[in-house]
Amino acid sequence: MRLDKFLKVSRIIKRRTVAKEISDQGRILINGNAAKSSSNVKVADELTIKFGNKTEVVKIMKIIETTKKDEAEQMYEILDESYEEDFRK
């Protein structure tokens, strides 16, 4: 499955166009390597996603083409979540 579609179907990112923009900016890594929106993901891949000052590491548990909200949470497991502090205060 394409990275941008996985992010949307799993509801990590709400819109596929936003997922495409973020991944094409180099803010997503698959197993430590820079990923584009067209990169393929598979079960057991680790995604590192940078949202502004938040970085989230998730592991893909299963891939489903279409999901309901409760099924989407079963598609991945959050391994780490960290926040960078804003030093401009």
UniProtKB/TrEMBL annotation:
Keywords: Protein biosynthesis, RNA-binding, rRNA-binding, tRNA-binding. One of its GO terms (molecular function) is rRNA binding. One of its GO terms (biological process) is rescue of stalled ribosome. Residues 1-64 form the RNA-binding S4 domain. Pfam families: S4. Gene3D superfamilies: RNA-binding S4 domain. SMART domains: S4. Key component of the ribosome quality control system (RQC), a ribosome-associated complex that mediates the extraction of incompletely synthesized nascent chains from stalled ribosomes and their subsequent degradation. RqcH recruits Ala-charged tRNA, and with RqcP directs the elongation of stalled nascent chains on 50S ribosomal subunits, leading to non-templated C-terminal alanine extensions (Ala tail). The Ala tail promotes nascent chain degradation. RqcP is associated with the translocation-like movement of the peptidyl-tRNA from the A-site into the P-site. Associates with stalled 50S ribosomal subunits. Binds to RqcH, 23S rRNA and the P-site tRNA. Does not require RqcH for association with 50S subunits. Belongs to the RqcP family. HAMAP family: RqcP (MF_00871). This is RQC P-site tRNA stabilizing factor. It comes from Paucilactobacillus oligofermentans DSM 15707 = LMG 22743.
